[in-house]
Amino acid sequence: MTAADLASELNLRFSPAFRTEYRSSMTIVIAFGTVCSDDDRHRKHWASRRERAMPPKEPNIVLVHGAGVDGSCWSGVIERLQADGFQVRAPQFPMSSLADDVARLRQVLEFQDGPTLVVGHSYGGQIMTALGAEAPNVVGLVYVAAFGLDEGESLGALLSQGPAAPALAHLITDARGFNWIPEDDFVNHFAADVDPTKTRVLYAVQQPLSTSVLGDVMGAPAWKSLPSWYLVAQNDETLAPDAERQFAARMGATTVEIPSSHVPMISHPNEVADLIEKAANAVGAPAVTR
């Protein structure tokens, strides 16, 4: 190409006519892209609206944590239940007395619109058991390695019947009378089948239990008037598996067993969710196909 040809080409490319045509072309491209982008946004918006409009499955599910953990211990279970369409709540409990904890549970239950399945872990089982027959919207109970006391029994009397479980052998009682599990026992016994890195995070948010709870005597237990399910943790070093089996047998619970430590909702969230959904199906929710 000669210098004259190059000059002619440049003049053509940057002539007013070329610039006008180029701007018009780009306007069409940008406008088309904007329409497509807006269309995508509208589709996503209405899809989201449709998802929100779908009513959750019944029953509602309330998850009650026990001592040593807080409501976040249910995270894996919550994700699964929500994905399957259930309305879930996992409140925090003060662990200051059985009366305080039951009052908190009643407060949460009053907030639920419709029938509700209550799930309790460890001492959380004692909280929901203490509801008695005075929870009209509760339709069933699921015990996860949990205490299922009968009328006249107390947690302290039960725990004093034999040697302390490995996870509870070295409890530290603070000045306010709350009991803490030492880190080594928490990692090696309380949550022995959870990755140690995750277990230390759980230890950092440990929820201690007041000594006063040990003397609180159970009234009429809720499991005598409600259908119950029980998950036995076969490798539990906090609540003896045989004690769990005895609780389950006494209440006539539908029972499953898994090879878990005391925190199956953390180490085996899907198995725990399976049992909860089985219970939900039995009391009224449509079965979930997986």
Alpha-carbon distance between the two ends? 69 Å
Mean pLDDT: 86
User: Can you tell me the CATH class of the largest domain?
Assistant: Alpha Beta
Structural class: alpha/beta
Strand order of the largest sheet: 2-1-3-4-8-9
Keywords:
6-stranded parallel beta sheet; 11 helices; Alpha/beta hydrolase; 15% strand; alpha/beta; hydrolase; 290 residues; Rossmann fold; AB_hydrolase_fold; 3-stranded antiparallel beta sheet
Provide an overview of this structure:
The protein is of the alpha/beta class and 290 residues long. The protein folds into 2 domains: 3-52; 57-282, Rossmann fold. 45% of the residues lie in helices and 15% in strands. It contains 11 helices and 9 strands. The strands form 2 sheets. A 6-stranded parallel beta sheet has the order 2-1-3-4-8-9, sandwiched between helices. It has a 3-stranded antiparallel beta sheet with strand order 5-6-7, with no helix packed on it. The chain is globular. Residues 6-16, 18-39 and 42-53 have low confidence and may be disordered. Keywords: Hydrolase. This is Alpha/beta hydrolase. GO terms for molecular function: hydrolase activity.
